[in-house]
Specification:
The complex is a heterodimer. Chain A is mostly beta strands. Chain A has strands at about 5, 10-15, 20-25, 30-35, 45-50, 55, 65-70, 75-80, 85-95, 95, 100-105, 105-110, 110-115. In chain A, strands 2, 4, 5, 6, 9, 12 and 13 form a seven-stranded mixed sheet that branches. By secondary structure, chain B is an all-beta fold. In chain B, the strands form two sheets. In chain B, strands 2, 4, 5, 9, 10 and 11 form a six-stranded mixed sheet that branches. In chain B, strands 1-3-8-7-6 form a five-stranded antiparallel sheet, with no helix packed on it. In chain B, a hairpin with a 4-residue loop joins strand 7 (about 60-65) and strand 8 (about 70-75). Classes of the chains: A mainly beta, B mainly beta. The interface of A and B includes residues 4, 41, 43, 100 and 111 of A.
């Protein structure tokens, strides 16, 4: 098993559909992240979970809904998306230490390529 | 605001040396990361600098000058497999990662 696994790798959905992205990490890390990657733009941090609690939500529209049932799994539930939401969605994990949330290097999955029609 | 600047695209020749620059303006500094991302693949960690100077790791080296808000990634003896995007990221005073848009490196034979 690779360190961070994302499914599906590719997803095409209509604006009225409901779908979910899944991420699983096999590294024993205590923090997981969702990032959005659009062409020629910096990575955008969407959500952070540390020890299964959401510690950050970067003003992401409510049509994106994260879920972290345990420290190894992270979901991103999608509903009534817009065409501008088409992007690569990357999951990452890391080991976090202390109250200041000092994180070591991030380990990324290969991403889910989302196309909204 | 916080900002990371790096060139959008660079081209180099197989066997040569290339330097990818990264300049940053952030609220504080707690380290700088370089990641490599091949097309369609996950970004992977290359290097981490928190003190001024050069960190060497095989064919790859990373340099940091905190006073200048500047870093570079140096790739020697370029190989075709080095064709990828290189992402610069700075950890600010709140330990948040601020990312550059990445530099696409094209290696020609």
């Amino acid at each position: 098993e690779t360190g961070v696994t994302q499914t599906p790798r590719h997803l095409v959905m209509g604006m009225t559909n409901k779908k979910s992205l899944k991420c699983e990490q096999h590294l024993g890390h205590n923090a997981m992240y969702w990032y959005k990657q659009s062409a020629k733009k910096p990575l955008e941090l969407m959500f952070v979970y540390s020890l299964e609690e959401r510690v950050e939500n970067n003003s992401v529209p409510s049509r994106f809904s994260p879920e972290c049932p345990n420290s190894s799994h992270l979901f991103l539930h999608l509903h009534t998306l817009q065409p501008e939401d088409s992007a690569l969605y990357l999951c990452a994990s890391s080991q976090v230490e202390g109250d200041t949330f000092v994180t070591g290097e991030l380990f990324f999955g290969e991403g889910s390529r989302l196309t909204v029609l | 605001g916080q900002n990371i600047d790096q060139p959008t695209e660079m081209t180099a020749t197989e066997g040569a040396i290339v330097q990818i620059n990264c300049t940053y303006q952030t609220s504080g500094f707690n380290g700088l990361f370089w990641y490599q991302q091949h097309a369609g693949e996950a970004p992977t960690f290359l290097s981490y600098n928190v003190l001024d100077g050069l960190e060497e790791k095989g064919r790859f080296s990373s340099f940091l000058s905190r006073s200048k808000g500047y870093s570079y990634l140096l790739l020697k003896e370029l190989q075709m497999k080095d064709s990828a995007s290189y992402l610069c990221a700075v950890r600010d005073s709140n330990y948040q990662l601020i990312w550059g848009a990445g530099t696409k490196l094209i290696i020609k034979p």
